[in-house]
Design brief:
It is built from 41 helices and 14 strands. The protein is α+β, with helices and mostly antiparallel strands and 960 residues long. Strands 1-2-3-4-5-6-7-8-9-10-11-12-13-14 form a 14-stranded antiparallel beta barrel. Helix 13 runs antiparallel to helix 14, helix 15 runs antiparallel to helix 16 and helix 25 runs antiparallel to helix 26.
Length: 960
């Protein structure tokens, strides 16, 4: 059996064994992952609504992995969807017993208990979830709905008010809260608790000043209380806000009718008709006129006194009666006009100003209230009632200015009332907020310290100070203070929450300034107190990665995965740590699993591709090219539009001579990027390796825009132009000088090379040598052949008339051993002029680096009588490209080795000789090159006598 056949059987056996091992491992993996497969199948069926099938898959999965709570939790959901509520409840309660932190299980149980009308249990689960996510609007709404189902209005309303405090600007929440206020008001009114109903309707109007129904209900409540003045005031307020509201206008006319204010009612109705004719108001006007006619038969005192006052404005009795009656009846516009007129003659009257203030308060005209109260306080600063009203007004105005961010005016007001015991505490709180808003941090710190000193048991001021430190970016102080108060008050949720907030703020600051050692310390403390804090885990992991403490980072991740086993963020952190540690294989494994779970996440897919390319790079560097090829192919499957993977993959395949497969891969990539330069270059390179230099040049010419071609690219195109030429002529000249003029000689050579195809070339050569005794001519023919396996041979034969050997023949076989190694074995025969037969055996080895070629050969020679040897080492050092290079060589032996001077065999055999040489070969253009080389031989003729030989070789080569 030949060696090649033996090697073939060996590789087939190894391949079969590998397939069996892989198959066995795959079967083991399949067995291990069967529960996960069932879970995947269950979720797929559930997404289609096939919950019966999904439940069946979950049950099978639990038989494989009874402790897998993900499967069991999903099984509970399936039972719930199938209406098997008791089985669903039992299953999910078991899940919570094994894994108390699960959120989805509680959501399912809320639905189950609601369907089972076990509302109290559903509320309990909702409360547990709100401890985890206290600002979940959906959970609050669900809780409120459950209280309504329990007919527990008190708790429903309390929860709604709490929700409104959390989301004061949410339209849905505002509407719900407003409806609750209305329901409460209606319930109070029906229960005859009219005073409380009035307060509730006032709240509704404070909440929504344009609610017509609230105005009407409040008017009706005042009417039931018999307070027509207040009812009329509400109607006036309503019409001031909603001047076109017919229901409120009608209610006001009705009130005027009830209080016998027919003249005013008639006037208002007539004004209404002036703005547009209406049958309804025309009928109403007729009705009012008739009622007024009947009423005034008895003469209203108000009308009589008004006539008296009109005739005699100085009549104090008439003035006082009209003014007091106007105020009592709610005729605030008339009262206001009377007071303005009276104050012109008595502007500092305490009584008149007080009544004016009352009128403005009834109208809720804050600007006029302010002007009047300031005037009263200026005139009568020691009056306690006036002083109280003044302070109330100052405080309210300061709050209004604060809300409008008019901090200068607001600060003045709060400072003023902060001197009073009633407002001191609240005003200082606002003053503190103003200092913070204006970034007057020293003033804010001084004030909050005084408040903490004055009210040591009030937690709010301590929390304010911690907030202030964070606003000042003194995160260390905030952190230490929060931690201290949390330690002293471990049961206080406020301090616990603030400590977490301060810790995270401090961590972010430390992370920003890259103090990762402290980040580790603070995150460790925070996680010890709050093991579920995801953000703390992420910062803790990040700090360790930044410090290249990868083992600690991995341990941290494993700890966090105990609480968040399905967290995508933590899994990404795990992949990032593996990648940072240079363990790209593990990083790729983690990202692959995530990609399977989130196949449509573009960012995740890009991360996976990037990591796989890094992994492939490491296998490239290790020479594990089979693994590299597998990875690059996976990248192409995951991301068909990727360009780097096909280029890297084809680089390997080109070295393996898999050129057809390389072309298929590049073509598949060009489908997505038809003009991508690197892909075009790669395709040109493959054509070049195939020997199709025309297409290689075509694609290389598209590699860069013609307007921006680099010199290097142009040289590449010229080179490919030259490679397409089939013919070459070489002319060379060798001059030999020695210490003995008798041995000096010269040789001229002319060569013609024809590239028949990519595997075959022939050279015809004529060597010419002239001496005093005549002219010697030698003709030679060489054949170069390359096999498909990349092995090759060179065969040569030649004849000469004189000086040169009579006949010569040689053959050498070259076998690639690896990508950059090649071995040579060959032999030569020469029939010398003295009729001796000269045989030469050749063994050689060469190594190719990126820009260096090295070669060593051993020559064993014999003339039939004696044996000779020579060891030759030579090298090429390529310059900018593989066409311009420097050569260097050296040899040692008992016979010189130079085929151009093989006739010297007659002269210098049996003498120990050494040689060194160097040369330079340069392409002038893509077709023509020149070269020069010099060699120095030293022959030891006797123990004390040496001869030196100097060879100078010049050559010109051109293609056509």
């Amino acid at each position: 059996m030949s060696k090649q056949v033996y090697n073939g059987f060996k590789w087939i056996a190894i391949s079969i064994f590998s397939l069996l091992v892989i198959g066995n491992l795959s079967a083991q993996d399949s067995s291990q992952d069967s529960s996960d497969e069932y879970f995947t199948l269950a979720r797929a069926e559930g997404s289609k609504g096939n919950f019966a099938k999904a439940a069946s898959y979950c049950e099978k999965g639990l038989k494989k992995s009874p402790l897998d709570m993900d499967i069991k939790e999903y099984l509970g959901k399936c039972y719930m969807e199938l209406g098997q509520l008791e089985k669903a409840r039992t299953t999910l309660l078991d899940v919570l017993k094994q894994s108390p932190r699960r959120v989805d299980a509680r959501h399912y149980l809320i639905n189950i208990e609601t369907q089972s009308k076990r509302y109290y249990s559903a509320v309990c689960y909702a409360n547990e979830l709100l401890e985890i996510t206290p600002y979940s609007k959906a959970l609050w709404l669900k809780k409120i709905s459950l209280y309504h189902l329990m007919d527990n209005r008190v708790e429903a309303n309390r929860s709604a008010k709490r929700l409104y405090q959390i989301f004061p600007d949410d339209i849905e929440v505002k509407d719900m809260y407003n409806n609750i206020l209305k329901d409460d008001a209606v319930r109070l009114a029906k229960g005859k608790n009219l005073e409380s109903a009035v307060d509730q309707y006032e709240k509704i109007l404070d909440f929504s000043a344009t609610d017509t129904e609230a105005y009407l209900n409040l008017i009706n409540a005042y009417i039931k209380l018999g307070n027509y003045s207040a009812a009329l005031s509400v109607a006036d307020r309503g019409l001031q806000t909603l001047p076109n509201s017919n229901p409120i206008f009608d209610k006001k006319i009705g009130l005027l009718d009830e209080t016998n204010e027919y003249q005013r009612a008639i006037t208002l109705t007539e004004e209404k008709l002036k703005r547009g004719e209406s049958a309804h108001y025309r009928t109403l006007l007729n009705y009012l006129v008739e009622k007024a006619a009947r009423h005034y038969k008895n003469a209203d005192p108000y009308v009589l006194y008004k006539r008296i006052y009109d005739q005699s404005p100085s009549n104090a009795e008439a003035f006082n009666f009209i003014l007091n009656t106007s105020i009592t009846r709610g005729y605030y516009e008339e009262a206001e006009a009377l007071l303005k007129k009276a104050l012109k003659s008595n502007p500092n009257s305490k009584d008149l100003l007080s009544k004016q203030l009352y009128v403005y308060e009834a109208q809720k005209n804050w600007e006029k209230i302010g002007n009047t109260v300031e005037k009263l306080y200026t005139l009568y600063p020691n009056d306690s009632d006036i002083k109280e009203k003044y302070n109330t007004w100052v405080f309210q105005k300061a709050k209004l200015d604060f809300n409008e961010q008019n901090y200068k005016e607001s600060l003045w007001g709060f400072l003023k009332v902060s001197e009073t015991p009633e407002y001191k505490r609240y005003a200082n709180q606002y003053i503190f907020s103003i200092h913070v808003a204006q970034k007057s941090y020293n003033d804010a710190l001084k004030l909050i310290n005084s408040m903490i000193s004055r009210y040591p048991n009030e937690s709010q001021y301590t929390l304010n100070k911690i907030d202030l430190f964070m606003t000042m970016e003194d995160y260390a102080a905030a952190y230490e203070m929060a931690k201290d108060f949390k330690t002293k008050n471990p049961q206080s949720l406020e301090y616990v929450h603030m400590a977490n907030t301060a810790s995270l703020s401090y961590i972010r600051y430390l992370n920003k300034v890259e103090d990762f050692e402290k980040v580790k310390m603070v995150t460790d403390e925070l996680i010890a107190a709050d093991p579920l804090n995801m953000e703390a885990y992420q910062y803790g992991i990040g700090a360790r990665v930044a410090m290249k403490q990868y083992d600690e980072a991995l341990a941290y991740i494993q700890k966090s995965l105990q609480f968040y086993p399905k967290s995508k963020e933590i899994q990404l952190k795990l992949a990032g740590v593996y990648a940072a540690a240079g363990n790209h294989e593990e990083a790729t494994g983690v990202l692959k699993a995530l990609h399977q779970e989130y196949p449509y996440n573009d960012s995740l897919r890009n991360n996976l591709v990037e990591e796989m390319l890094l992994y492939a790079k490491t296998t490239d560097e290790k020479g594990e090219f089979e693994k590299s090829k597998s990875i690059y192919n996976q990248v192409r499957t995951i991301s068909p539009q990727d360009t780097l993977a096909p280029i890297k993959l084809t680089n390997i395949l080109i070295e393996e001579n898999a050129l057809v497969r390389s072309m298929e891969i590049i073509d598949s990539a060009l489908i997505y990027h038809k003009d991508y330069p690197d892909l075009l270059y790669q395709k040109g390179l493959i054509y070049e390796k195939m020997g199709n230099f025309r297409l290689a040049r075509e694609y290389h010419s598209r590699y860069m825009n013609p307007m921006t071609k680099s010199q290097q690219n142009q040289e590449r195109l010229d080179y490919l132009d030259g490679k397409q030429l089939k013919n070459q002529v070489n002319l060379s000249y060798l001059n030999v000088n020695t210490d003995s003029t008798l041995l000096n000689t010269s040789i001229a050579t002319a060569e013609y090379l024809r590239q028949i195809n990519k595997n075959n070339a022939v050279i015809a050569r004529v060597n010419y040598a002239a001496r005093k005794t005549g002219v010697g001519v030698q003709g030679e023919l060489d054949w170069y052949h390359t096999f498909k396996s990349k092995s090759s041979f060179i065969a040569s034969a030649g004849v000469a008339n004189q000086y040169f050997p009579e006949f010569k023949a040689s053959v050498s076989y070259f076998q690639p051993l690896a990508k950059t190694w090649q071995a040579e074995i060959g032999g030569r025969y020469a029939r010398l002029r003295d009729d001796r037969n000269f045989f030469t055996g050749i063994v050689g080895l060469e190594k190719t680096f990126d820009k260096v070629w090295l070669n060593a050969k051993v020559f064993l020679m014999s003339d039939g009588t004696d044996y000779y040897h020579n060891l030759l080492a030579q090298s090429k050092f390529y310059m900018r490209n593989d066409r311009n290079y420097i050569v260097a060589m050296a040899s040692l032996g008992t016979a010189p080795e130079d085929q151009r001077l093989d006739f010297q065999i007659n002269t210098f055999t049996s003498y120990v000789n050494t040689m060194v040489g160097a040369g330079y070969f340069h392409y002038i253009n893509s077709r023509t090159s020149i070269g020069a080389q010099g060699n120095w031989y030293n022959f030891k003729m006797t123990k004390t006598n040496y001869i030196n030989q100097y060879n100078v070789f010049l050559t010109v080569r051109t293609k056509f």
